[in-house]
C-alpha cells in the first residue's frame, strides 16, 4: 500500500513538473516568438484567407508575382512567401484561424502547437504500450529538439501534421489485434499525402511490404478529399498545381543548404546553380543525379528488407515503423530543417527500445550522436559552408537521419533474440494463435519418477514434472461419410 501511494505521488509530481515546464516555455519562448513576422505562418494565413473568402482566386496563388503582394497585404511588410508544390486542399489547414487578426492568430497557433506536441507524444507513448502520461513527461525534453523550435519560430504546420503521423503510428503498431487499425493508419497517411504531400517515402516502402490494405485506405482517403476539393475550388487550382509539379525535380533552389536532403547534398557538391550552389567542387549534374538515385534506391531496398527481418511481434512492428520513417525527409525531393519534426517519433522509438532492451552504453552513444546531428543548432546555411568540400559540413540533419536509420537496422538480431528467449505462457507458444490452421498443437506432457526419500522414510515418493510439448498435427481428414 505504501509503495502504491509513493508511485501515485511520483506520478503526480512528474505530471506537475512537466506542466510547469510547458507553462514556463509558453511564457518565455512562445510569447516572444509570436511577435515575430516570419514566412511559414504568414503564407498559411494568407492562403487560408484566400481559400475561405475568395476561393475562386486560389489558382492565382501559384503565381509568385500575384501571391507575394497578397502576403504583405494580409500579414506584415517585408515577409516573402510562395505557394508552390502545395496541393490545393493544403490551403485549408489554417482556415479555422483566418477570422482572427494576424498577430492574434499567430499567438493562438503557436500555443496550439504546444498542445499538438503533447498529444503527439501521448499517442506515441500508447504506440509503445507506455501510459499516455509518459508522453506529457517527455514533452519538455522534446522542446530541445531543434526542428521543433524551428517549427515554432516560423509558425509552420508540422506539429499539427505530427499528430496525424503519430495517430497513424499508433494504429499501425496495434497490428492485427484490431482489424480497423490498418484502416485508420491508411486514412491518416492519405490525409498527410493530400494536404501536404508529407512522408511520401512511406508509400513505396509499404508497397514493397505488401501492406495493400493500408495503401488502399490511404488512396481512397486522398481521392475522396481531392474530389471534395473540386466541388469547392474547381479544377483551376489543381491544374496550376500539376503544372508546377515538374519544377519539384528541376528548380535550382533545391540545391541550397537550407534543404537538408540527399538531393541537396550531391547537388550542392556537383551542380553549379548560383546563388543556391555558387561554388561546387565540379559541375557534373549527371554525377549528382546518379549518386542521388543510387543512394535513394539502395536505401529503399535495404529498408524494405530490414523491416521484414525485424519480425511481426509488437517490438518488431514498432521498430519497423521507425525504420520506415527515419529517411522520410532526408530522401525526399525537398526538406528543410523544420521538416525533421516528423522524424522525432523514429528517434523516440529508438530511445524506447534502447531503454527497454537495456542496450549497452556504446549503443546509447551512437544513438546520442544521431540525435545530436538531427537537433544541434548548427549554422548549416552559413556562406562559409557553401563552397567546395566545405559543403560536406552543411548537412548535419542528413547525416543524423542516416545514422538513426543505420542504428535501427542494427536492431534486428536483438529483436529476434528477445522473441526466441521470451518465456512461453502456459500451454501456448509463439506459433499458437498466429494463424488458424497452422498445424501446430501445444499439449502438456506429465512425466514422473519414483525415488526413495531415504532410510527415515522408506516409502517411495512420486515426483511429477510437466513440460510443454509442441507437436505438429496434420489437418483433420475429410470424411466421405456424412457425420450424424
Sequence-ordered SSE layout with sheet pairings:
Blueprint: H1 2-34, H2 41-53, H3 64-74, H4 102-127, H5 133-142, H6 146-154, H7 158-174, H8 181-196, H9 202-208, H10 212-233, H11 236-244, H12 262-270, H13 285-309, H14 314-326, H15 344-356, H16 361-375, H17 396-409, H18 412-421, E1 440-452, E2 460-472
Helix pairs in contact: 1-4, 1-5, 4-5, 4-7, 7-8, 7-14, 8-10, 9-13, 12-13, 13-14, 14-15, 14-17, 15-16, 16-17
Task: Please give a structural write-up.
The protein is mainly alpha-helical. It has helices at residues 2-34, 41-53, 64-74, 102-127, 133-142, 146-154, 158-174, 181-196, 202-208, 212-233, 236-244, 262-270, 285-309, 314-326, 344-356, 361-375, 396-409, 412-421, and strands at 440-452, 460-472. A two-stranded antiparallel ribbon has the order 1-2. Strand 1 (440-452) and strand 2 (460-472) form a beta hairpin.
Helix fraction, binned, reads 55-70%
Radius of gyration: 27 Å
* Average pLDDT for all residues: 83
Q: Helix- and strand-based class? A: mainly alpha
Question: What is the global morphology?
Answer: globular
**Number of DSSP strands?**
2
Strand order of the largest sheet: 1-2
Q: What's the order of the H and E elements?
A: HHHHHHHHHHHHHHHHHHEE
Low-confidence stretches: 423-484
Number of helices: 18
Describe the sheet with the most strands: 2 strands, antiparallel
Amino acid at each position: 500500500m505504501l509503495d502504491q501511494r509513493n508511485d501515485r505521488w511520483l506520478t503526480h509530481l512528474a505530471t506537475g513538473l512537466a506542466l510547469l515546464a510547458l507553462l514556463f516555455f509558453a511564457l518565455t519562448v512562445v510569447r516572444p516568438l509570436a511577435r515575430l513576422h516570419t514566412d511559414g505562418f504568414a503564407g498559411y494565413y494568407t492562403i487560408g484567407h484566400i481559400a475561405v473568402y475568395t476561393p475562386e482566386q486560389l489558382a492565382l496563388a501559384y503565381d509568385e508575382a500575384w501571391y507575394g503582394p497578397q502576403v504583405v497585404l494580409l500579414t506584415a511588410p517585408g515577409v516573402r512567401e510562395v505557394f508552390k508544390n502545395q496541393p490545393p486542399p493544403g490551403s485549408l489547414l489554417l482556415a479555422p484561424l483566418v477570422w482572427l487578426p494576424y498577430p492574434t492568430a499567430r499567438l493562438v497557433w503557436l500555443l496550439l502547437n504546444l498542445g499538438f506536441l503533447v498529444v503527439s507524444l501521448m499517442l506515441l507513448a500508447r504506440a509503445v504500450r507506455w501510459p499516455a502520461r509518459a508522453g506529457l513527461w517527455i514533452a519538455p525534453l522534446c522542446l530541445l529538439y531543434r526542428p521543433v523550435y524551428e517549427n515554432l519560430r516560423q509558425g509552420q504546420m508540422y506539429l499539427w501534421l505530427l499528430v496525424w503521423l503519430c495517430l497513424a503510428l499508433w494504429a499501425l503498431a496495434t497490428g492485427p489485434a484490431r482489424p480497423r487499425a490498418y484502416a485508420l493508419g491508411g486514412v491518416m497517411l492519405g490525409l498527410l499525402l493530400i494536404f501536404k504531400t508529407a512522408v511520401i517515402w512511406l508509400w513505396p516502402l509499404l508497397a514493397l511490404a505488401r501492406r495493400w490494405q493500408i495503401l488502399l485506405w490511404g488512396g481512397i482517403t486522398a481521392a475522396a478529399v481531392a474530389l471534395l476539393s473540386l466541388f469547392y475550388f474547381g479544377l483551376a487550382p489543381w491544374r496550376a498545381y500539376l503544372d508546377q509539379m515538374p519544377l519539384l525535380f528541376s528548380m535550382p533552389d533545391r540545391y541550397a543548404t537550407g534543404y537538408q536532403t540527399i538531393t541537396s547534398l550531391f547537388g550542392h557538391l556537383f551542380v553549379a546553380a548560383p546563388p543556391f550552389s555558387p561554388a561546387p567542387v565540379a559541375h557534373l549534374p549527371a554525377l549528382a543525379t546518379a549518386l542521388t538515385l543510387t543512394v535513394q534506391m539502395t536505401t529503399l531496398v535495404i529498408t524494405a528488407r530490414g523491416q521484414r527481418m525485424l519480425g511481426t511481434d509488437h517490438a518488431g512492428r514498432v521498430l519497423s515503423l521507425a525504420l520506415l520513417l527515419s529517411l522520410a525527409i532526408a530522401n525526399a525531393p525537398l526538406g528543410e530543417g523544420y521538416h525533421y519534426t516528423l522524424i522525432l517519433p523514429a528517434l523516440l522509438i529508438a530511445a524506447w527500445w534502447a531503454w527497454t532492451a537495456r542496450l549497452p552504453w556504446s549503443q546509447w552513444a551512437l544513438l546520442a550522436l544521431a540525435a545530436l546531428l538531427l537537433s544541434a543548432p548548427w549554422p548549416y546555411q552559413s556562406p562559409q559552408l557553401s563552397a567546395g568540400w566545405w559543403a560536406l559540413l552543411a548537412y548535419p540533419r542528413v547525416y543524423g537521419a542516416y545514422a538513426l536509420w543505420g542504428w535501427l537496422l542494427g536492431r534486428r538480431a536483438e529483436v529476434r533474440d528477445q522473441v526466441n528467449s521470451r518465456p512461453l505462457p502456459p500451454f501456448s507458444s509463439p506459433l499458437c494463435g498466429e494463424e488458424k490452421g497452422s498445424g501446430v498443437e501445444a499439449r502438456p506432457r506429465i512425466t514422473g519418477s519414483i525415488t526413495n526419500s531415504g532410510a527415515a522414510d522408506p516409502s517411495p515418493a512420486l515426483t511429477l514434472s510437466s513440460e510443454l510439448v509442441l507437436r505438429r498435427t496434420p489437418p483433420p481428414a475429410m470424411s466421405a461419410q456424412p457425420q450424424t
